[in-house]
Amino acid sequence: METDWGIATKENNMVHSAAAYDVERNRADFPVLSRKVRGKPLVYLDNAATTQKPKAVIDRLTEYYTSENANIHRGVHYLSEVATAAYEEARAKVQRFLHAVKPQEIVFVRGTTEAINLVANSYGRLNVEEGDEVILSVMEHHSNIVPWQILCQEKGAQLRVVPVADDGELILEAYEKLLGPRTKLVAITHVSNALGTINPVREIIGLAHGKGIPVLLDGAQAVAHMPVDVLALDCDFYSFSGHKLFGPTGIGVLYGKAALLDAMLPYQGGGDMIRSVSFEKAAYNDLPFKFEAGTPNIAGAIGLGAAIDYVQRIGLDRAAAHEHELLHYATTKLCAVQGLQLVGSARQKTGILSFVLDGLHPHDVGTVLDMDGVAIRAGHHCTMPLMERFGVPATARASLALYNNREDVDALVRAIHKAIEVLRRPT
User: Fold this and answer.
1) Cis peptide leading into residue 288 (ω within 30°)
2) For this structure, is 152 an active site residue?
3) CA atoms within a 13 Å half-sphere pointing along the CA-CB vector of 101
């Protein structure tokens, strides 16, 4: 079976991997999972918002700050050399993780949001003109909508939006019709943060490239749940956030094809992104430093490298198989709850379960679940156009990660039944 991960996967291999997966051993790597919340064992099901951190990442951050802390690239002393080597090794780890051609195609940013803003400002301002079009989908996160809105307002360009079917899948026929001579970029999420839908990005990219149109993928919800190969996908830009890959907050990645990055202007000005500066002009640095102005999040990049080491030791393919089995189990359990409706039932999806309960506001549901130590997300999930498409103001969202187990799902279902009882009790 060919997937949109950028690799070929066999169903029987996934089943075998799931059988060999030791979720309890992996849970022990995450210190926060052993704590109690409001007197109850923590059941953490808010992984689409941020993942917990394994001890290996926490220890690496501590090691950096206790024995390696220094600014990078500009120092000639020992600590600076050590910190620089660790920072650049983290870049090389990201390159190998994404299967990019070279480390120079990996730009460290604060997260997916900044990566998309960088492309909108540095690529978009050079290439989008009055009357041009940028294609998004209705399921985009606000961070993949607002930067393009700002750009289009400034340039007199237009946003074109790919619709989504009732099951949460993009309507590819509509997408293909939107591609035209004025389309200058397609910016699409790899995996929906609100629905869990895995978009057919190979086909999306192929159709766009057939008309010479570059594609940016928002990979924030993909990289922790499936292997990603940017070469096999042939995307032009790929972005993700470290904190959703079991790494620190405040660090993220923009992958871009070298030829595109070379042609783009810097996103910000400052130290380390220049070769020379006079009051008449500045000469910019080579890739990727041209886009990394100022002192970066050194510890964050190193911590992200440690997170990549961690997930590669476990095996993302094995973790994906475990999550797939757990998603099936959770879907069956939730569908048996009277009055509960799942929002999003795509044929290919990750472990995200958005739901509504008849007559109950998701915020109230989330509050009652929290009293039982069950952490979910309730709201519009920064996808207000998608909520409008499905006719709901918000959903409750439980999202799975490699450390979740069936006991977590069972606790979620028990807490939902309790919420129904409490919230429907006559006052």
Assistant:
1) yes
2) no
3) 12
- Give the three-state DSSP class for 203: helix
pLDDT tens per residue across span 319-343? 999 999 999 999 999 999 999 999 9
Q: What integer is the mean pLDDT of 285-289?
A: 95
CA 226 to chain CA centroid, nearest Å: 11
Contacts of 340 (CB under 8 A, 6+ apart): 334, 355, 356, 357, 358, 416
∠ Cα 104 106 111 (to 5°): 155
CA atoms within 13 Å, Cβ hemisphere of 221: 27
- Collapsing DSSP states into helix, strand and coil, what is residue 241? strand
Determine the Cα–Cα distance for residues 357 and 368; give it in Å rounded to an integer. 13
Q: Which of 375, 366, 331 is nearest to 349 (CA)?
A: 331
Q: What 8-state DSSP symbol labels residue 8?
A: B
Q: Where in the chain is the domain with CATH 3.40.640.10?
A: 57-312
Asked if pLDDT for residue 8 goes beyond 80, the answer is: no
**Residue limits of CATH 3.90.1150.10 in the chain:** 11-52+315-423
Q: How far apart are CA 5 and CA 353, in angstroms?
A: 20
What is the fold, at CATH topology level, of the domain defined by 57-312?
Answer: Aspartate Aminotransferase; domain 2 (3.40.640)
Q: How far apart are CA 395 and CA 343, in angstroms?
A: 8
User: From CA 269, how far away is CA 264, in angstroms rounded?
Assistant: 13
Beta bridge pairs of residue 395 = 379
Task: Give the span between the Cα atoms of 130 and 73, in whole angstroms.
Answer: 40
**Sorting pLDDT into bands at 50, 70 and 90, what band is 227?**
very high
- The helix-helix angle for 316-335 and 298-314 (nearest 10°) equals 80
Question: Residues 6 or more apart from 332 whose CB is under 8 A from it?
Answer: none
Instruction: Supply the DSSP symbol for 279.
Output: S
Q: Phi first, then psi: give them for residue 46, nearest 5 degrees.
A: -120, 40
Contact 65, 195 (CB under 8 A): no
Question: Residue 134 forms beta bridges with which residues?
Answer: 159, 185
- Dihedral Cα 79, 85, 88, 89, nearest 10 deg: -130
Which of 152, 235, 335, 382 is catalytic? The answer is: 382
Q: Which two tokens stand for residue 197?
A: 């839908």
Cβ–Cβ under 8 Å, residues 180 and 151: no
| Architecture category of domain 11-52+315-423 in CATH | Alpha-Beta Complex (3.90)
pTM of the model: 0.94
Interval 283-288 mean pLDDT: 94
